[in-house]
Structures are given as C-alpha cells and as structure tokens.
Amino acid sequence: MNREWKKISDFEEILFEEYNGIAKITINRPRYCNAFTPKTTWELSQAFSLCREMQHISVVLLTGTGDKAFCSGGDMNVKGRGGYIDGDGVPRLSVLDVQMQIRRLPKPVIAMVNGYAIGGGHVLHLVCDLTIASDNAVFGQTGPKVGSFDAGFGASYLARIVGQKKAREIWFLCRQYTAEEAERMGMVNKVVPFDRLEDECVEWAETMMERSPLALRMIKAGLNAELDGQAGIQELAGDATMLYYFLDEAQEGGRAFLEKRKPDFKKYPKMP
Ligand code: S0N
C-alpha cells in the first residue's frame, strides 16, 4: 500500500516522518549503505527524543533508505583515532547513546530491515524491540575484520538472543547470514518479500496500537530490567513511581505537606 508519510522535522542525514501514530526514522545515506556519522547519530538521538515526547506517537519504525542497506555501521570515511570524527574534530562513539535511547524508549521500536544490517548497523537492529526483515536482508558483524568491536549490547544482548556459541561464531568469523538464517537464530521476528516490508511493519505497529500502551511500556521495562541490572531496575522503578503518583495516596502526602498538617494515610488499602 502507498501510504502518505508526513514529515515531522527536517534533518540532513535522516528522514523523520509519521503516519497514523507511527513514526518512521530512516537513515538516509544510501550512497554509503546508510553508514552513520556523528551527525547521523546526533539526528537519530533528536528524533528518538521527539518520539518519546510526542503523545500521539505510539510505535517507532527504524529503517534505511533504498533496497540495499538498513545500516552498514559506522562510516569508515570518518573513523579516526578515538571514534568517528565530524567537522568539529572531536572523536565520538555516539551510536551508543542511540542504542540506549531505543532500549529505554517507553514505546515499541521495530527495526524494518531492508538490506544489509552490518557492524554497528547490526547492533542497531538488535536493540530494537522487534525486527522484521525483507527477504534480501543480510546480517552480520565485521568488527574483527575492520578494526572495531561492540562488546556492549552487541555482544551480551546478541548472546542472550542467539546463545553464547552462535554469538561467538558471529563475531569471531564475521560471516554474513541470510534473513532466513537470522530468523532461525531468533534475531528476526518475521521475513517478508521486500515489497511487503513496510506494510508488514505497519500492520504489526497497528496491532500493538490496539494494546494497552501502559502494559506495553511496563513489559518492555520488565524485559529490559532482567538484563540491564541496576539501570534496568531504575527504569522499571521509575514507571512504578509514575503510576504511584496517579494515586490519591501519593497526592495526600504532598497535599498534607503544603497544608502543614500530618498526612492521613490510614484510609488507603493495604492489598494482600
Ligand atoms: C555493506 C556491504 C557488505 C555492502 O557490500 P557491497 O554490496 O559490495 O557494496 P559496496 O560497494 O561495498 O558499498 C557501496 C558503497 O558504500 C560504501 N560503504 C559501505 N559501508 C560503508 C561504511 N560502513 N562506511 C563507509 N562507507 C561504506 C562503500 O565503501 C561503497 O562506496 P564506494 O562506491 O565509494 O566504493 C559492504 O559495503 C561492507 O562490508 N561495508 C562495511 C561494513 C562494516 O564493516 N561496517 C562496520 C563499521 N564499523 C562499525 O560499525 C563499528 C561500530 C563501532 O565502531 C562502535 C563500537 C562500539 C561502540 C560504538 C561504536 C560506534 O560506532 O560508535
């Protein structure tokens, strides 16, 4: 189906659009197989922040322009000592911030993988909540071949998904895997023909939009908490605090302070 995506804001290296409560963030550097520079990751961070704030956005799709690549990782043209270097001369590894934003966004993120998901691009799809891939998609890590590695989510989260042996194979051998192989490994939720990819992702997004957004938020935080230790507990605990603040019991504490009286908490239930 040809749907009308409406631009949300102007960026240089990404497209940021919406349709019917779904945001679509597209890495738009097809000349470089959608490799990311510090500017790309800065723009991705801005877009994900906006997705967090915008009340009418329920689900986010992350993809790349064209039919060749989702994302081929860090742009080798700007890889220098200490990280990726843009005009200001400062080396950065700022895709790590984007990974964290995707994991902590309290809304589902679907990786819409339309071709190569390689290197840092492979890690980007991994950290999304769901991955739907076209049948031409190719997955793999290249770090040990090209002088890099991601020992964070790219290692531990990958191993949680595909198992330790397979994760070591993926990193140590730097082979490429088809979409079907990635699906069998549990890295991909569904493989569809290329011309079905966007429709499939929108259908999954629309199904999730029929579910309780708060329930999805809590279950995402719960799935993260098990893996993310103290940071994961902080995320889940923040959600619990948010819910507590909706209760009269929490309001009573604040009201009593402002009215300079003792709070009366006795009337509130102590559930078994
Ligand atoms: C994607 C591949 C397999 C496609 O191969 P194919 O079909 O043969 O096309 P090419 O002719 O190779 O590509 C077309 C043009 O695109 C350029 N290009 C492709 N990828 C990149 C890239 N990553 N950077 C810059 N340019 C790229 C090609 O050069 C070509 O241009 P021309 O026409 O001028 O020759 C194939 O292209 C491929 O293997 N690409 C490289 C993939 C790769 O190795 N990526 C890994 C990069 N490293 C990382 O992502 C590391 C991540 C990292 O550093 C990190 C780690 C921990 C914490 C943070 C970070 C961080 O990134 O911040």
TrEMBL record:
Q: In which pathway does it act?
A: Quinol/quinone metabolism; 1,4-dihydroxy-2-naphthoate biosynthesis; 1,4-dihydroxy-2-naphthoate from chorismate: step 6/7; Quinol/quinone metabolism; menaquinone biosynthesis
Which SUPFAM superfamilies does UniProt cross-reference here?
Answer: ClpP/crotonase
Keywords of the record:
Lyase, Menaquinone biosynthesis
Catalytic reaction list: 2-succinylbenzoyl-CoA + H(+) = 1,4-dihydroxy-2-naphthoyl-CoA + H2O
The entry's substrate-binding residues are Y84, Y116, A117, I118, G119, G120, T142, S148, Y245, K260
Q: By its UniProt entry, which CDD domains does this protein fall under?
A: crotonase-like (cd06558)
Q: Which superkingdom, per the lineage? A: Bacteria
EC number(s) from the headed UniProt entry: 4.1.3.36
Q: Which cofactor does it need?
A: hydrogencarbonate
Q: Which family does it belong to?
A: Belongs to the enoyl-CoA hydratase/isomerase family. MenB subfamily.
Stored HAMAP family: MenB (MF_01934)
Briefly, what is this protein's role? Converts o-succinylbenzoyl-CoA (OSB-CoA) to 1,4-dihydroxy-2-naphthoyl-CoA (DHNA-CoA).
Q: What is this protein called?
A: 1,4-dihydroxy-2-naphthoyl-CoA synthase
Question: Source species, please?
Answer: Xylanibacter rodentium
Q: What is the lineage of its organism?
A: Bacteria, Pseudomonadati, Bacteroidota, Bacteroidia, Bacteroidales
